[in-house]
Hints:
Blueprint: H1 3-6, H2 15-31, H3 47-58, H4 68-79, H5 85-103, H6 109-131, H7 139-167
Helix pairs in contact: 2-3, 2-4, 3-6, 3-7, 4-5, 5-6, 6-7
Amino acid sequence: MSQADANPFEPKLTPGRARMIPWLTVVGGSACTALPLVATVPILPPLGLVMLLAWRLLARFALRPWAAAPLGLFDDLVSGQPLGSAVLIWSVIFLAIDLIESRLVFRDFWQDWLIAAGATLFAIIMGRVLALPIGARVDGAMLAQAAATILLFPIATRFVAWIDRKRGMV
């Protein structure tokens, strides 16, 4: 029997490290856009946003309400979007989720998935409006990216739930 089994109520990580893990996973998801991938159709989902939504909807108190702004700034710096676009979009998404949570008493996974799908569509459409000229023909690729992101959300929540269980803050 190991030391961890002797006291199952002892936190597995120090509180500072346990609080850093959600931030690091969102930063890691945002940094994935900088990987040199060659694709015929650009459907790489915004992984930073997916991780942010998974943490916000699954573990409500893992990220503070103001965390969307600095994480969005990092995403803007890494992804090449206009500076401040993800700061604004992610902050609006956090405010909308807070508004939805104040109206709903109970939520299940399907409602979380619907909230994440709406937030993803909002983020992708607003990112297109802020970053590209109106005449650009990117609607097909944008819809494929939105579909890939929405379908990726259950995997991200499973990953976040596993991390949350391992960090010992449940």
